[in-house]
């Protein structure tokens, strides 16, 4: 546990923070600050999920990786979370024809990711925040902020509650109300780029014997070019299935949510393109019609803070598409980075500025990599050229373990800055493409000739301590 000397023991006023949002980032941020002796109050628009059940927005399962685990360790919450998680060793790729194949994420079981339920994780982190001493206020929806008077207004129990604050930390997601209030106070340079693709969630229930119906320790992908299905395991032996495709007809002859509009259309689509899933999803028609279409976009801001009055983290600052599984991991890294900057400076404005300068380049980098990974997942994972480059990538990693580290490993199993992972990943991609152009097997690649190329282009890389 990370702790700090209590301000009261030094005769100083206790530092105080108000966190808007008790989701994943908000609950973790509350825990980290409360552990450091801060007085923390968290205001959440929803009811307490421990009483009313989880009522979040998206329920896409989350992929917990090393960045997120590091943050959970700092909050002493990693063991409770992993107890509910399911290990995923790699991608199980289901081609339109042929046998599914597992593509490992890493070299062995030391390099895996974990499928976690958003709702269960949120409850675990809320419990951790409460245990650390944070004050939790549910059914309190932020409506307005008066920055001059340092008052926030929350709607709850049929009343408007006026509450003073020292500083506000916005953890209220992509549709952040705090961000909208900050924007009225100072232009944040906000812009959202919509992907034009959306998603619909379905479910694979347990088998008759209560076990998983398909391989549990993998992220399953059915790549189909410009659209795809994925399935992530849950600890209750179900899978959350997500269909991704264009919102409108793009003129390629591919399905879209404009052309597949009801249960009949969904059944026909799955019979044609995902036939092996039909026996696995008995409630396909019901799920398709009952569950809403989710939208996908990337949120960019030029500024994340307003002096020392307020700062945004996680999706409230840099929402991204889910295709690299890093949205939560990035938000958790934000929490640790912000807590560290607040440790380093008693001046809130200086700490927020330092946090923004540190994290914004990395947020932009992972936002770009998440978009790139959509193309990889839906179109490249069963492409022969991509598979050959993957073989060569692993061979070069074995020959140069401190220099040539696969892009996915840098993002997922290390904690180097995302921006550095992006930079090195692009260098490595060019090496792989040049070395395999016109070839069909790894045996055709002159590996010794690539050694000096790798040594010149890629200095040795050490992970973040």
Task: Report a brief summary of the structure.
With 465 residues, the chain is α/β, with parallel strands linked by helices.
What's the gyration radius in Å? 23 Å
Beta content comes to 15-25%
**Can you give the helix content as a percent range?**
25-40%
First-to-last CA distance: 16 Å
Largest sheet: 7 strands, mixed
Strand order of the largest sheet: 6-5-14-15-16-13-17
Helix-strand makeup class: alpha/beta
Average pLDDT works out at 94
Would you report the number of β strands? 19
Mass-distribution shape: globular
Number of helices, where a helix is a run of at least 4 consecutive DSSP H or I residues: 15
Q: Unreliable stretches, pLDDT < 50, 5 or more residues?
A: 1-10
Give keywords:
15 helices; disordered N terminus; 19 strands; 21% strand; six-stranded mixed β-sheet
Could you please describe the fold and organization of this structure?
The chain has 15 helices and 19 strands. It is of the alpha/beta class and 465 residues long. The strands form 4 sheets. It has a 7-stranded mixed sheet with strand order 6-5-14-15-16-13-17, with helices on both faces. α1 runs parallel beside α5 (118-132), α1 (24-35) runs parallel beside α10 and α14 runs antiparallel to α15. The radius of gyration is 23 Å and the shape is globular. Mean pLDDT is 94; it is low at 1-10.
Itemize the secondary structure elements and their pairings.
Layout: E1 16-20, H1 24-35, E2 39-43, H2 49-52, E3 62-64, H3 66-74, H4 78-82, E4 86-88, E5 90-93, E6 101-104, E7 113-116, H5 118-132, E8 135-137, E9 141-146, E10 151-156, E11 159-164, E12 168-170, H6 177-185, E13 191-204, E14 219-223, E15 228-233, E16 239-246, H7 263-273, H8 284-290, E17 294-300, E18 305-306, E19 310-312, H9 315-318, H10 327-344, H11 348-380, H12 384-399, H13 407-412, H14 418-436, H15 447-457
Parallel strand pairs: 1-2, 1-12, 2-8, 5-14, 12-19
Antiparallel strand pairs: 3-7, 4-7, 5-6, 9-10, 10-11, 13-16, 13-17, 14-15, 15-16, 18-19
